[in-house]
Design brief:
This protein has 190 residues and is α/β, with parallel strands linked by helices. It has a single domain, classed as Rossmann fold (3-Layer(aba) Sandwich), CATH 3.40.50. It has helices at 16-22, 44-51, 59-77, 99-105, 132-137, 163-174, and strands spanning 28-32, 36-43, 84-88, 112-115, 119-121, 142-144, 151-159, 178-187. The strands form 2 sheets. It has a 6-stranded mixed β-sheet, with helices on both faces. A two-stranded antiparallel ribbon has the order 5-6.
């Protein structure tokens, strides 16, 4: 098969050379609500072609690879004094897998315990390509399933306006949880 990035022949969808040269994560930071840090490993434009595989059969492989490269390394190096859980934002299964669950699972480490299906949107509105105004008028209405840990890392694939993460933080705060920061695969901010 051909590498998705360089079109050279490869035994995998993305050749080793491209993984080493084109998919090394950086850390980008912005804030939501003025006080919650959101860290992203890539700028959207850097991996846009790969992100568009999300709703295809190939998406599981691509998201698993990116999760291992970025989230896995982050999880291995993360330290915190108290128990921390990571929660994927609305781990709804589409096309055979949940892309946020794939990212969340890669964070598993001595310091981070991924939990699954603990933060669910009751509204299934798609925000993809929608305006900030649309997002305001169509809230996700998150429901939190009980878990014992206090400290949370929120996980999503893309941050655009920050609306989804903001709503998720608010839902968790209502349950007495503290979001220490959010992690996303890509930041769509220009």
């Amino acid at each position: 098969m051909k590498c998705l990035l360089c079109s050279s022949w490869s035994l995998t969808h993305i050749c080793k050379n491209c993984r080493n040269e084109n998919l090394q994560p950086s850390l980008y930071k912005r804030k939501i609500r003025g006080n919650i840090d959101v860290y992203s490993f890539y700028k959207y434009r850097e991996i846009e072609k790969l992100l568009h595989t999300k709703h295809t059969d190939l998406g599981f492989y691509i998201y698993s690879l990116l999760a291992k490269i970025a989230f896995g390394r982050f999880g291995e190096s993360f330290q915190f004094d108290d128990a921390v859980v990571s929660l994927g934002v609305d781990e709804h299964v589409k096309h055979g897998y949940s892309h946020t669950a794939v990212l969340n699972k890669a964070l598993a480490s001595d310091a981070i315990n991924p939990r699954f299906n603990k933060l669910t949107a009751t509204s299934k509105e798609s925000y993809s390509g929608k305006s900030f105004q649309y997002r305001l008028l169509h809230p996700r209405r998150f429901v939190v399933t009980a878990f014992k840990e206090q400290y949370v890392i929120l996980v999503d694939d893309i941050i655009t306006t920050g609306m989804t993460l903001t709503q998720a933080v608010e839902a968790l705060e209502k349950e007495g949880k503290e979001v220490i920061f959010c992690l996303t695969l890509a930041d769509a901010e220009k």
